[in-house]
Write a sequence for this structure.
């Protein structure tokens, strides 16, 4: 089964077995958290989740009535209003990295040991996006992974295979 456009959190302590179905909230404004994704799988170093907008859309379609979150909305986060928001890749950088990734996605996923590809912030420059290649840390041999694809930096993450929690 292949999943696309998933939320990936690279952390060894973010989730554990039994956490499937947990709601993941934003962390940009401590006084006002927003639903971001629904956790469904992970490994020893990463957590995988479905984007919440997609979850709500699928539920709405399946049930035939609108499914949404209730509650109050928050004012603009102070750090965003003051311009001190944490660095993140621009949408243009993400689009460029996504296009480069899609051009080689089938090739990369056909290599033994590669268990996933995606787009995330670059290790060297949090304002730039990079292609992220997930490699099975238990593989008998590690696949050859290019350092750049179409000019976009590639970051390799060694992890155990993802399993549903």
């Amino acid at each position: 089964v292949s999943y696309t456009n998933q939320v990936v959190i690279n952390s060894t302590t973010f989730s554990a077995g039994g956490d499937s179905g947990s709601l993941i909230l934003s962390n940009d404004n401590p006084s006002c958290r927003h639903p971001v994704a629904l956790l469904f799988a992970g490994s020893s170093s990463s957590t995988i989740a479905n984007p919440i907008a997609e979850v709500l859309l699928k539920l709405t379609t399946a049930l035939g009535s609108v499914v949404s979150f209730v509650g109050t909305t928050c004012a603009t986060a102070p750090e965003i209003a003051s311009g001190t928001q944490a660095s993140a890749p621009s949408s243009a950088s993400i689009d460029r990295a996504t296009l480069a990734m899609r051009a080689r996605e089938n090739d990369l996923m056909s290599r033994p040991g590669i268990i996933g590809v995606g787009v995330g912030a670059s290790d060297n420059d949090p304002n730039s996006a990079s292609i992220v290649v997930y490699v099975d840390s238990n593989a008998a041999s590690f696949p050859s992974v290019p350092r750049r694809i179409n000019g976009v930096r590639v970051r390799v993450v060694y992890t155990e295979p993802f399993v549903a929690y």
User: Anything to note?
Assistant: Residues 77-85 have pLDDT under 50 and may be disordered.
